[in-house]
Amino acid sequence: MKFNKLLVFIAVFFTVSLFSQSNKVYRAERDKVHNLVHTKLKVDFNFQEKEMNGEEWVTLTPHFYETDKVTLDAKAMIIHKVTMNNQPLEYNYDDYELIINLPRTYKRNEEFTLYIKYTARPERVKQKGSAAITSAKGLYFINPTGFDKTKPTQIWTQGETEASSCWFPTIDAPNQKTSQEIYMTVPQKYVTLSNGKLEKQTTNANGTRTDYWNFTQKHAPYLFFMGVGEYEVIKDKYKDIPVDYYVEKEYAPYAKEIFGNTPEMLAFFSKITGIEYPWNKYAQIVGRDYVSGAMENTTAVIHGERAYQTPGQLIDENVQENTIAHEAFHHWFGDLVTTESWSNLTVNESFANYSEYLWLEHKYGKDEADAHLFEDIEGYKNGQNFDKHLVRFYYDDKEDMFDAVSYNKGGAILHMLRNYLGDEAFYEGLNTYLTDNKYGTGEAHQLRLAFEKVSGKDLNWFFNQWYFNSGHPKLSISYDFNKLRKTVTVNIIQTQMNEFRFPFAIDVFEGSKRTRHNVFVEGRDASFTFPFTNHPDLIQVNADGVLLCDINENKVLSDYIHQLKYAQNYVHKREALLEVAKHQDDKKAFNAVAEALDNDFYKIRILALENINLINKYSKKNVIDQIMKIAQNDSKTLVQAAAIETLGKLTDPALKPVFEKGLQSKSYSVLGKSLVGMYYIDKQLAIQKSKTLPLAVKKIIATPLTRIYLEENDDEELSFIASNVMSGMFLSPNKKIQSLYKKAFDKIGKSNNTEAIQNLSDDIVAKGLQYKQYNFDQVGVNLLRQMAQMQKTNKPSNKEKHLKVIQIAMAKLLE
Fold first, then answer.
1. Radius of gyration of the chain (CA)
2. Which helix (H) or strand (E) holds 510?
3. Which residue of 143, 204, 394, 410 pairs with 208 in a disulfide if CB–CB is 3.0 to 4.6 A?
């Protein structure tokens, strides 16, 4: 599963205590009393009641000990009957577990098949879900009656962690594997998707159609999937394997631009694992109101609406590409070999996370991959994660495992392991782990043994400190130079509680000449001495950027200027640029930032544009001319947009042609920045252009438009602004954007704009209910109270009407 990072931000923002390592409940692998063998389902849907009518034939066998009863997970269902060979069986059901008395005692390897007729009632399910899932209902009806004319009717399922048992009785544990058949009966107008192959479609006399999906291989119950809706199916392929993209008609022309790298991903992952893509198809579907980022259901991946993008967005970047890679790699790590328990989630999610790095490195180069790794590591460091183990046998709730440790830190750890072993041993180790455990389960120890088998190295030390312990090295670095001996000694002191062992790269720079020294740090206090010819201009520790750590060292401006120019790793260039930018009153510092405008990597160019100070005595016309050229000609539209934003700060009428050209750009990021730049030199033209934009485009560039409309006091646009306020205030990690939307909230709260107040109230309710488990609903109530107070204070003419709207919204959150 891939989480939307904005939802993770909400989780961190609103959760007081996400995890406690002191929890003393041991979270074991589920005991295997029975093994699932095969699951056959026949289902149809009651759209009005949000229920599903189901028939199930489930085949099981005792795992080892003989048994005369079987327990299945079945949440909030109506069980109509249970039989075997047409003979009714006695059972007990408590809304969570279905305990069935078998007609006799069954021995190990002796199979039996149960028939269960039932009704699934997902709206009655009461269990916590992952990330943004307020209730893990398993089966989701989206706009089932068609009441909302702005939204299509859809059905989709979400099984992870243990929610498949909300729509069919099963042993809902990741250490179970079963083949499956599903007969789905739906109205003729709908397309269906499930795991495996669509074997047959049968038209029924009552205007429905029954689709028969057959999946002959084994996978875990949480990977079962059903999708229903009015979709266009865009065909693609990898070798002879169908690769299909299920999208709403509006996005059909762009489906291959969004998902089109999928075949290349499958080829790349097949190559590095040494295991050909192991399933018979690969389909991806986009679900409305989906509860997370995406989910790796075997051969039937579902993505959230964020995947939908138009050419004006895709020309900047495909924001879903990392997620597409993530879910594809899960088909090896997670689907082919599945974690035996949620405690060992790392063998699923850490690999899927690291696949994003591997794909970016393969497709776009090491700088792009390193920039992504940096952002992931920052996500881990910025949360309450330092005390969490990667493998956790003690946690409050299984959903707690889906965090920045299992994902971000786990991916960084795999990057360190790959660096230590070397690519050849690392990839062969992946192959050994997958081959030895295919169609089964795995845990961190099996992973260690696979890498040890291939490399011949003992890896207990690595796994003990990174997988079965917490934290990361916090290093204090100092240097001793001996001019007589021409040596430099690098002193490394670990200041964190747990002592780590690790390989460490140190670069010694003499001018542009770089000498790499690879050392191994064994103790809490370590020193390494290196020779030099001329006094070094820079000592760069963790020079390859591989070690997950915090570094404290004393560097001066000249060090950072040299680092910016000559360092090899993106992280060090980024660090240096931000430090040098603080001192642009120094001519050398300003020139260093200006020089970074020509950096080969576009994210460094963007960072330089965002931080260059054009209002100082060293800001010469040639630098502004250079930025003008970047704004119009850079190969990356995101860099063009950053250049336009930088030029916009000058409010110089001479720059109008740059903004005019930007207003014609196909890139929405360039368009948005050009509107703001134009607003400060020709308000009428900027506003006129904004009014002609289609609503779909306005929604995408909502932030720059909000800035313009607020400064213009354009009350006609308050209803548009209102729909973006909550996301801007709470889902954006950018403090400037948060502040902008706080101003918007205050303005709407004091206004007499009925539509804007209604839109804002509706959005507060929607967000509050969606993220209820993070107390976002209480935040919403407080915001509504603030709005009510504003209305009372400002006494608008529609005060009573507005207070009623706010009162109704508050009641929805409090019910």
1. 29
2. strand 502-510
3. 204
Closest to 251 (Cα-Cα) out of 291, 285, 220: 285
Inter-residue contact 674 to 628 (CB < 8 Å): no
3-class DSSP assignment, residue 23: coil
Max intra-chain CA distance, the chain = 96
H helix runs in 490-569, sequence order: 557-566
Positive or negative, the CA dihedral 736, 740, 743, 749 is negative
Cβ atoms of 696 and 704 closer than 8 Å: no
pLDDT tens profile 806-815: 888 888 887 6
Task: Please state the rounded mean pLDDT for residues 257-278.
Answer: 98
- Alpha carbon distance 539, 546 (integer Å): 16
CB atoms within 10 A of CB 800: 9
Contacts by 478-485, CB closer than 8 A, 24 or more apart = 478/553, 478/554, 479/539, 481/535, 481/536, 483/535
Residue 574 corresponds to which tokens in the numbers above? 């980024």
pTM exceeds 0.70? yes
Res. 16 pLDDT band, cuts 50 70 90? very low
Mean pLDDT of the chain: 94
Angle between helices 637-648 and 621-633 (to 10 degrees): 140
With b for 16 or more beta-carbon neighbours within 10 A and e for fewer, the 302-334 pattern comes to bbbeebbbbebbbbbebebbbbbbbbbbbbbbb
208-266, pLDDT tens digit by residue? 999 999 999 999 999 999 999 999 999 999 999 999 999 999 999 999 999 999 999 99
Element (H, E) at 802: helix 799-814
* Two structure tokens written together for 430: 């992946």
